[in-house]
Predict the structure.
Amino acid sequence: MTATGRFLVLEGPNGVGKTTTAAALADLLRSRGDRVHVTGEPSTAPLGRLIRAHEAELTGRALALAVAADRSHHLDTEIVPALAASATVICDRFIPSSLVLQQLDGLDPREVWSYNAALRPIPDITVYLITAPATIGARLAQRPRRSRLEQAGSPDRELALYQQARRFLDGQGWRQITIDCRDLPADQVAARILAHLPRKDPAP
Ligand SMILES: Nc1ncnc2c1ncn2[C@@H]1O[C@H](COP(=O)(O)OP(=O)(O)OP(=O)(O)O)[C@@H](O)[C@H]1O
Ligand SMILES: Cc1cn([C@H]2C[C@H](O)[C@@H](COP(=O)(O)O)O2)c(=O)[nH]c1=O
């Protein structure tokens, strides 16, 4: 367990429901009296904002390194302090996103891992959301604009790459689960995650 809080990461393809599930899980935890910190990557710090602002032209290795640097800063300045304050941190995207998105951008995942392997803490639990590729495709089709990497991937390919990332990180000792969100409203997805959430360490 990390400090006295819990570090939970939500992962899965563009449009699978990470942001929606993060909000539903936060509501559920808060209704039980838990302290919750919802965050995501790229972060809202200057480097994270720069990455988002330049997502069309920041590519390949430069993007992979920028995302890893933002992640390191995000851990040090936001995630670790929130964990130390006993919060459950819900993070929308983390290292698995890099293993998948930077692969879609042409990099070997082993190189991407080398930029991220030393980062600490690792999540207490990583939750991969999956649903029907056609459902994801229909959601993405409704978006007014799609980012460069959204266009580079497809629901089927991303689902397969997240599965591959999960297998790799299982081998690194990460605690991970996959939740099939088919026909489940967000509050029920949140309830399923809650059932797997490690208990908090008692405050010292
Ligand atoms: N469990 C669910 N049931 C039905 N619709 C959902 C569910 N979860 C999310 N949605 C809908 O799917 C769409 C995409 O959701 P969301 O933005 O949370 O996905 P995301 O994975 O965060 O996407 P991105 O990675 O591209 O930011 C939204 O319209 C949202 O309302
Ligand atoms: C965490 C992470 C992010 N990115 C890039 C890919 C997209 O341009 C954005 C994510 O935006 P979304 O609103 O969450 O879909 O950031 C990346 O390339 N690698 C990463 O690890």
Q: What stands out?
A: The radius of gyration is 16 Å. Residues 14, 41-42, 55, 63, 67, 93, 97-98, 101-102, 147, 149 surround LXEULUCI (ligand 2) (CB under 6 Å).
